[in-house]
Amino acid sequence: MLNEREAESCYLGQFIPLHYHHNMLMDSNRMQAFKTAIQHVVRPGAKVLELGGGTGVLSWFAAQQAEKVWCVEFNPDMVNEARRLLAQNPQGEKVEVIHADAFEYLPPEPVDVVICEMIHVAMLREKLLEVIANFKQRYLEKFGGLLPIFMPEAIIMAVQPMQQEYNFEGYSAPIVQFQETNAIYANSRQLAEPAVYSIIDFSAPIDMLISWQGSFSMTEDGNLNALRFITKNILSVLQQQSSTIDWLNHYMVLPLPSALQVKAGDIIDVSFRYRGGASIASLQNALQAVIRQPESITVHGEAVFA
């Protein structure tokens, strides 16, 4: 019988099907970004820990330079798959695949780098924030000293008002949609520029509660019926080059509870609040968007609008 954490993992998607992990191997943007970042961060002779290792490919990237890699995976099917695949690849013997809960595991000795790709758009569903916050506390209690480098090093999240088509061959269905970041969707129209609503630095204390209140000035007339969520993962900071190695999650477009007919120049106030790692529905239920009404002022006894 599943315990509470295992049951939540099944519901939120930590026990995602094997073929999904295989699809991630075929995602060239993801693979190239992580490979480049890991080559930059992992120095020869380093000790590396990966939390949530999946197929083991990121641990294998690290093993090309590292002396030792511990790859922790909670899903027993993925543990077997990672061991099978690593055995077929040179340097795979440097990776020890451990069947354990990332919330509980600590390496037998201090490590230089921690890789954790438990990443979902808007930091929903996956438990990255909670896992890293928990790990940092337990690691310092056991080893003291400095914390390792975390990958990703930071995450930038933004939100954008959208007009989204929800007509599917005559069937109206306002649903959550995920979009490729490098594709053009004719049924999606941007109504304003995106706004950053959260920056998470993994070297600093992590706040599990994510909330935002902000406003947008509409750049076009339209039917504001959705918000697009954008998540940019800063995998590694290249300080000497003053640049970063990034990876963008798929965009996530969430329908609003009520559509707003807007005109260019309208100011829209938007707010939401959710906990990192929670369900998509928890964010959907918190979405609010309203057209800001002009403020009335009195001039010589007559009411006018500012």
TrEMBL record:
GO-annotated molecular function: histone methyltransferase activity; protein-arginine N-methyltransferase activity
Residue ranges constituting the Methyltransferase domain according to the UniProt record: 48-134
GO BP field: methylation
Keywords assigned: Methyltransferase, Transferase
UniProt entry tagged with the keyword Methyltransferase: yes
Domain of life: Bacteria
Identification of the protein by name: Methyltransferase domain-containing protein
Organism: Undibacterium parvum
